[in-house]
Amino acid sequence: MTAAVEFQSVSRQFGTGPGAVRAVDAVDLTIAEGSFFAMLGPSGSGKTTCLRLISGFEQPSSGTIRIFGQDVSTIPPNRRNVNTVFQDYALFPHMNVRDNVAYGLRVKGMGRAQRHAKAEEMLALVQLPDYGDRKPGQLSGGQRQRVALARALVNEPRVLLLDEPLGALDLKLREAMQDELKALQQRLGITFVFVTHDQHEALSMADSLAVFNQGRIAQIGTPAEIYDRPRTRFVADFVGSSNVLPPAVTQAMGGPARWASLRPEHTRLAATGPLSGTVTALRYLGAATRVVMKTGDTEIAALVPAGHPLPEPGHSTAIAFDPKDLHVMEDE
Ligand code: ATP
Question: Which of 20, 118, 144, 197 lies 20 to 30 Å from 282 when distance is taken between CA atoms?
Answer without folding.
Answer: 197
